[in-house]
Automatic annotation (TrEMBL):
UniProt xrefs under SUPFAM superfamilies: Alpha-L RNA-binding motif, Nucleotidylyl transferase
Chief place where the protein resides: cytoplasm
One GO term (biological process): tyrosyl-tRNA aminoacylation
UniProt-listed PROSITE patterns: AA_TRNA_LIGASE_I, S4
Xref: Gene3D superfamilies: HUPs (3.40.50.620), RNA-binding S4 domain (3.10.290.10), Tyrosyl-Transfer RNA Synthetase (1.10.240.10)
Cleavable signal peptide: none
Job of this protein: Catalyzes the attachment of tyrosine to tRNA(Tyr) in a two-step reaction: tyrosine is first activated by ATP to form Tyr-AMP and then transferred to the acceptor end of tRNA(Tyr).
Enzyme Commission identifier(s): 6.1.1.1
Protein keywords: Aminoacyl-tRNA synthetase, ATP-binding, Cytoplasm, Ligase, Nucleotide-binding, Protein biosynthesis, RNA-binding
Catalysis: reaction(s): tRNA(Tyr) + L-tyrosine + ATP = L-tyrosyl-tRNA(Tyr) + AMP + diphosphate + H(+)
Name of the protein described by the UniProt record: Tyrosine--tRNA ligase
Motif ('HIGH' region): 39-48
'KMSKS' region, short sequence motif: residues: 223-227
Source organism: Paracandidimonas soli
Length: 393
């Protein structure tokens, strides 16, 4: 149980799950453990792997994991955490994105022991009659207990009726799959609990729920998301992945160790003590970057990425005497950082340099002019000759 609990936010209901585990052990029948992802974008990023890693742990303990691709629900759009109605995807967009999902998830899960399902299998056949019958099993009052719906209703922000269908259909997935445990991010808690209630309605033993924390993106502020430009895709090149991991702040590095590293908690604690005793945090970050790149590429690719990263600093790209600038508290937008550190004379000049590929952070070219930098120290380069070592507290 200690291994299962590592890194998780909540396990509901833990006593029920302990009984499920004991029964599984006695009978030799593995638990059915479900994770659903909607293919709203073509790539899986490191934020997704927080829960995928937990799935792999459970898989290695002998349980049956089900990787559910929400091809039907993604056409509705998950309203979790939204303050407006999410534009639905077209069937063509969903199909295109779904093509890459399983291949990428297989970099974490063992494909030979993973059950792959699409929720269109049971959602499409429901039809209008079945959808009405499903909707009759949950109340509007219970639906309005959801925090984002409550805030939007009180704020006079429209809620479309179809958005109520999303948690119902995600819950119905658990009925169709007879899941014993469903995993998801903390923002999915309401949807996962709907699954428990619907299973009771359909005469099934309710699933337990395990939520994992949401991983902050490279900006250290918002959750990792491709739409926010703060993501690290698991199919990116080794050099790109390594460079992005090296760009995170020293503070955020520990969050990444906790949620992404396969090191033991004791190992991570020992690394913290070494840094407190004078070890350069950069060395720990290198170790993390090499571990992650090795996982999704190879050990050699990680070594080559490190050599490439260091070469950018050795081969005359960095002057010996770089001015140091302290700009106060992060997060801070990159255009403001460029302006206040004296690397550009105006926001417009900063924006132009970013758009033209002339700005690098710790040797990695950036393309997002809305990038937010969290607390940490960064070597920022504009063009070939302008450098600054920027500290954000």
């Amino acid at each position: 149980m200690r291994q299962i609990r590592r890194g998780c936010d909540e396990l509901l209901v833990e006593s029920e799950f302990s009984r499920k585990l004991a029964r599984s052990h006695e009978s030799g029948k593995p638990l059915r453990i479900k994770l659903g992802l909607d293919p709203t974008a073509p790539d899986i990023h490191l934020g997704h792997t927080v829960v995928l890693n937990k799935m792999r742990q459970l898989q290695d303990l002998g349980h049956q994991v089900i990787f559910l691709i929400g091809d039907f629900t993604s056409m509705i759009g998950d309203p979790s955490g939204r303050n407006s109605t999410r534009p639905p995807l077209t069937p063509e967009q969903v199909q295109e994105n779904a093509k890459t999902y399983y291949a990428q998830a297989s970099l974490v899960l063992d494909p030979e022991r993973t059950e792959i399902r699409y929720n269109s299998e049971w959602c499409d056949p429901l039809g209008a009659r079945g959808m009405i019958q499903l909707a009759s099993r949950y109340t509007v009052a219970r639906m309005m207990e959801r925090d984002d719906f409550t805030k939007r209703f009180k704020g006079g922000i429209p809620i479309s009726v179809h958005e109520f269908l999303y948690p119902l259909l995600q819950g119905y997935d658990s009925v169709a799959l007879k899941s014993d445990l469903e995993l998801g991010g903390t923002d999915q808690k309401f949807n996962l609990l709907v699954g428990r209630e619907l299973q009771k309605e359909y005469g099934q033993e309710p699933q337990c729920v395990l939520t994992m924390p949401l991983l902050e993106g490279t900006d250290g502020v918002e959750k990792m998301s491709k739409s926010k430009g703060n993501y690290i895709g698991i199919s990116e090149t080794p050099d790109s992945m390594f460079g992005k991991l090296m760009s995170i702040s020293d503070t955020l590095m520990w969050r990444y160790f906790e949620l992404l590293s396969f090191r033991t908690l004791d190992d991570i604690a020992a690394l913290r003590r070494q840094i407190e005793q004078g070890m350069n945090p950069r060395d720990a970050k290198v170790a993390l970057a090499q571990e992650i790149v090795s996982r999704f590429h190879s050990r050699k690719a990680a070594e080559d990425a490190l050599a490439s990263f260091e070469a950018r600093f050795r081969h005359g790209e960095l002057p010996e005497d770089i001015p140091e600038v302290s700009l106060g508290a992060g997060p801070m937008g990159i255009l403001k950082v460029l302006r206040e550190s004296g690397l550009v004379s105006s926001g417009a000049e900063g924006q132009r340099n970013v758009e033209q590929g002339g700005v690098r952070i710790d040797g990695e070219r950036i393309e997002d002019k809305a990038l937010q930098l969290g607390a940490g120290q960064y070597v920022i380069q504009v063009g070939k000759r302008k450098f600054a070592k920027v500290l954000l507290s």
